[in-house]
Amino acid sequence: MIERLAGRPVIPVIVIEDANDAEPLAEALLAGGLDVIEVTFRTAAAPAALARIIRTFPEMLAGAGTVVTREQAQRCVDLGVSFGVAPGFNPETVRLFQGNGIPFIPGVLSPSEIESAFGVGCTLLKFFPAGAAGGPKMLKALAGPYSSLGVRFCPTGGVSVDNMNEYLSLPEVFAVGGSWIASKRQIAEKQWSAITRQTREAVARAKEVAR
Question: Is-catalytic flag, 126?
Fold first, then answer.
């Protein structure tokens, strides 16, 4: 599962307010060429939306984002998500996911956090908030000492179609996380064709980078 996830260069970061939007959103992403989704646990609709995607589209890697409490982590495990993501590093959350054979991507922003996450078995890490923390230049400097360990990063926060390849060109970056692919407004307005178009554009842009 980790290698499947690492093979997706773009991970849509999604905020869903209405679980009824889950299936058409997943269809829009699949039509655009992406079979991965991160539904953030920022809304009450997130668990139901994930359940619907997992049930209807078993071919998708359906992950949960913004997993910041033990209760949320257990809910994700019970749902059968493909992976979990957090803005920070909580070893208890990591252990819960690992104990159920589910990859977890904790957020890091310092060498100490990278070493702590790696120390409990995490090799895929979220660099967040990427833009505010210094962007590709900061990530390149931060990742350098750990390149021999096989640690790879997914920068999220401030990433767009215009700068995504600056990150993807770094050998330590396996993917970028993007909320621009399907914004809250577009989902609420059911702009599925626009989301498919943005997905195709992101996939095409990622292919420009030799990996």
Answer: yes
